[in-house]
Design brief:
The longest helix is centred in the middle third of the chain and has 37 residues. α1 packs antiparallel against α8, α3 packs parallel to α4 and α8 packs across α12. 39% of the residues lie in helices and 16% in strands. A 7-stranded mixed beta sheet has the order 2-8-7-6-5-3-4, with helices on both faces. Strands 9-10-12 form a 3-stranded antiparallel beta sheet. The protein has 3 domains: 242 residues, Type I PLP-dependent aspartate aminotransferase-like (Major domain) (Aspartate Aminotransferase, domain 2); 121 residues, Aspartate Aminotransferase, domain 1; 94 residues, Alpha-Beta Complex (Sufe protein. Chain: A). The chain has 492 residues and is an alpha/beta fold.
Amino acid sequence: MSAPIYLDCAATTPVDARVARAMHDCLVSGTQFGNAASAHVYGREASRCIEAARAQVAALVGAEPDEIVFTSGATESNNLAILGCLRANADRGRHLITVRTEHKSVVDVCRRLERDGCSVSWLTPARDGRLDLAALAAALRPDTVLVSVMHVNNETGVIEDVAAVGALCRARGIAFHCDCAQSVGKLPVDLPQLGCDFAAFTAHKIYGPKGVGALYLRRGARALVQPLMFGGGQERGLHPGTLATHQIVGFGVAAELAAQALPADSARLAQLCEQLWQGVASLGGTHLNGAAAPRAAGIVNISFEGVQGESLLAGIGELAVSTGAACSSDSPDASYVLRALGRSTALAQSSLRFSPGRFTQAAEIDAASAVVRREVSRLRALSPAAAVPGVAGAGLRRVSGEAGGPAEDTWVRFDLAIAGDSVKEARFRALACPHTMEVARWLEGELPGRTRQRLIPGTPAAWATAHAVPVDKLGRLLVVEDALRACLTNWI
């Protein structure tokens, strides 16, 4: 089986071969393995490599090298900025403002601060995904010490007007933090012009290695943040510990390559995303999330009517895509970002995020569009909303039963062809998860030959065991049983 087409670069990017070579050379060099904190020649050589990379990273975001603090990634940078700022300014206030559509590494930090007694104002964006600046201004209070607003949304690609947010914060003397993980290297970014005091970004979103990121710390803003860890005093005391020279070197090369390729890559990614959207829009019942707002090239998030999200994702195994943010893709819950934009639970759950990258080819986009069209069409044909199949022939009568509904996460319908007191033929329709679909399909084969008294073969618990259905999905099998019981009720 060939590898799936990779369209999840918003989650992570493959390491560019030029980055890998630079990291390899750093690892096998006879002089660069030293501890950058050591005073001897090996330490000085490692330090030289790190400072060269710091300059490369700073140049990508319009900063000075001494404004770049290396961290383990954007999650640590976000935590350091938010928690560190609240700690450092506890005497001034304990109120911060953020947006409901932020990345989990911001949302969860703010929730933790709420549990610790801080006050958080959660702003809801407009339906296009952008923040209402008037609502932000109205939320500012005398005890507000920090505003945290991301630059590019990781699920929809919507670009926020962070320069306006930064100007508002600066005028009020309030620190401004920005999660720039999805914008750095993909948009022209000048952090000083955006008015950021703190900004987080990472190497693995720009074809660099995982495990290294950066916190931009504006000159003069060091007093606004306290460290979360303590140790050797590296990185201005904010990220203590021996620096991983090879990872930082890889980050630097990735940053330099991103700066060189940005104009061409941006135009190319925009074209690929438009090609993908046009390839699936012909299905009808498709919604481009964030369509009314400016969006970064490289992310296209589409909701599909009439399908169930888990089944859709399971059916497109030829593609590597996401149903939302990679950090929370294991969750069965609908995307909180799309729900905040007003999408129904059903639409939010049936959304796919496609994010092509530097190495994606136009032919792969065409292939991906064809896979999505195939699977959406197949699932819609299986939906109870589709035309009922003709199961009743001469001398047969039809009995139907359904349970659940289109607004719920499970909707199942059985259509039986009956002769006398026996099922001759059965068909199912379902808008449901793959486990539920599998059980319903198995029942479709089990029902012919069964009488009214023995119509239901076993129990949902037994079905779950036989088909390895997770415990948390058992409630959905109860809907399947209810649909069969409805057939009994209608068997007159």
